[in-house]
Amino acid sequence: MESADKPTESREPSATSALLGSVNTRAYPAFISKASLLNLASEKADQLLRHPNVFLTSGILRAYVELQTTLHQPGSLADAFHLYANKPVPTPSSTNSDVIYKDASPSALNAAVDSKTANLALDSALATHDLNLAIDIITTTFATQAFKRAKILQRGLLPASALVILPLGAWTLATQFAQNFQSTMSPGYATGVAFAGTLAYLAHVSTIGYVAITTSNDQMERVTWAQGVPLWERWIREEERAALDRVAVAWGFAEREKRGEEDGEEWGLLKEFAGLRGMVLDRVELMEGME
């Protein structure tokens, strides 16, 4: 009787089985806490942001801020904003495959941090009650030269263009008035009078509007401008003042009748910082009951 045994075939392990075997035999920590996972994710994101070959865009910066805010790890946000403005820009070389790093300009328009991103970071710092971090975020976002230049370009370009076009429009109106709507003066003299009157009217209206915009204080709660700060500078730095106002409201007493009674090292630091930036924290004549 023939034996039913068959020769055993030797098989090489497949890639899948080798991978599964390595996973099954891998040693894991006995205990992994939630805090360690959050710290690890935060550290990896920070390493990715600081990698020399990673070009920082506003979208990447926004995603980084959102991630750190979600992880409740805002401690590196001020450094990220500084890195966004100063990190060397990786550029491919034209001669070989190497990467050339060009110095960035911290005052360039593309170095300005978006207001929404900066406010999100400030909210995260206020949630952790970290005063130094909140001040650093304000310093690296709203107080930078790049942010001021971006604001002038975004909000001041249209009014400036209007100021350039207005004299031409005033001259056209004056010419039409002199030729078609009057007969008591010569056309040339009437054109000059109408042009001067139109420019004077537009100048007065523009001045009143400019003063109204730059001196409005309805949005101010605890931080106001010190005397002597130019109106133009007040408009340019309004976001900086508003951010510091939010910090003061978060750190001080919620009850209005108790405002002005705050004390302590952090509150003194906040008042000193506001004074150095040309602002006043809790101006006496504007406080409750001191009008």
Features:
single chain; 291 residues; mainly alpha; 3 domains; two-stranded antiparallel ribbon; 11 helices; transmembrane; transmembrane helix
N-C termini distance: 117 Å
Structural class: mainly alpha
Enumerate how many helices there are, as a single number: 11
SSE pattern, N- to C-terminal: HHHHEEHHHHEHHHE
Radius of gyration: 32 Å
Contiguous low-pLDDT stretches (5 residues minimum) are 1-11
Strand content: under 5%
Beta strands, count: 4
Give the strand order, joined by hyphens, for the main sheet.
Answer: 1-2
The biggest sheet amounts to:
2 strands, antiparallel
Counting structural domains, the number is: 3
- Shape verdict: flat
What is the oligomeric state here? single chain
Average pLDDT, rounded to a whole number, is 85
Keywords: Membrane, Transmembrane, Transmembrane helix
Short description:
The chain has eleven helices and four strands.
Structural features, described:
By secondary structure, this protein is mostly helical. It has three domains: 34-143; 150-215, no CATH class; 218-291, no CATH class. The protein has eleven helices and four strands; from the N terminus they run ααααββααααβαααβ. It has helices at 15-24, 34-50, 58-70, 77-86, 115-127, 131-140, 145-180, 187-215, 231-236, 238-251, 265-276; strands at 89-92, 99-102, 223-225, 279-281. The strands form two sheets. Strands 1-2 form a two-stranded antiparallel sheet. Strands 3-4 form a two-stranded antiparallel ribbon. Strand 1 and strand 2 form a beta hairpin. Helix 6 (131-140) packs antiparallel against helix 10 (238-251). Residues 1-11 have low confidence and may be disordered. The chain crosses the membrane at residues 157-177, 189-213. Keywords: Membrane, Transmembrane, Transmembrane helix.
